[in-house]
Write a structure and sequence with these properties.
This protein has six helices and eleven strands. By secondary structure, the chain is α+β, with helices and mostly antiparallel strands. A five-stranded mixed β-sheet has the order 6-3-4-7-10. A hairpin with a 6-residue loop joins strand 8 and strand 9. The protein is globular, with a radius of gyration of 15 Å. The N and C termini lie far apart (34 Å). The relative contact order is 0.22. It comes from Streptomyces cacaoi. InterPro entries: YbaK/aa-tRNA-synt-asso_dom_sf, YbaK/aa-tRNA-synth-assoc-dom. GO terms for molecular function: aminoacyl-tRNA deacylase activity.
């Protein structure tokens, strides 16, 4: 099937591509519930050597700059405790960690989690972290603009491959909280 965005001729419903996903993402797809059917989560194969934004967009379609989202892991500290969460923002923006995310997480301090922590705690590859399949107790802050996209390209948990999902599916993820202005102009 042809993907609804980008130049991907071979989009496959994610439940049919479980072997291409890392285990936490595959488990989340197997257990998927909610108003968006799992078959609407699409997997597309991508070349990990073309992951750089400029090359990726040239290869897979310029509209992907406007129809993709990034997921980053944030460490919030309050009262000596560190809590991890994820932030999902349109790819043309950056996460407002120090103000919007910090306040939403009710933390004294918030910062991007170290790479080893992000990879170790998610079970996903760096550069492929996705909001699907994150630990169940994590808050997942989703910029309202990402959730409003008809279709959004996100990571698959691996550097190879991406997921294309209805934006509204992001709002139904476990721990999801819609946040206005989470992504600020880059």
């Amino acid at each position: 099937m042809r993907a609804p965005i980008g130049n991907f001729d071979d989009a496959v419903p994610a439940p049919q591509a479980l072997g291409q996903l890392c285990e936490p993402v595959a488990a989340a797809v197997r257990a998927w519930e909610g108003p968006v059917p799992a078959e609407q989560l699409l997997y597309v194969d991508t070349d990990p050597d073309k992951a750089d934004t400029a090359v990726f967009v040239e290869t897979y379609g310029p509209e992907l700059l406007e129809t993709s989202a990034n997921c980053v892991v944030v460490a919030a500290k309050q009262g000596g405790e560190r809590r991890l969460s994820a932030c999902v923002v349109p790819s043309g923006t950056r996460v407002d960690v120090n103000t919007t995310a910090r306040r939403q997480l009710d933390a004294r301090k918030a910062s991007f989690a170290p790479r080893d922590t992000a990879v170790g705690e998610t079970g996903m590859e760096f550069g492929g972290i996705t909001p699907i399949g994150l630990p169940a107790d994590w808050p997942v802050l989703v910029d309202e603009a990402a959730a409003a996209m008809p279709w959004v390209l996100i990571g698959s948990g691996r550097r190879r491959g991406k997921l294309i999902v209805p934006g509204k599916a992001l709002a139904t993820l476990p721990g999801a909280v819609l946040v206005e202005g989470l992504g600020q102009p880059a």
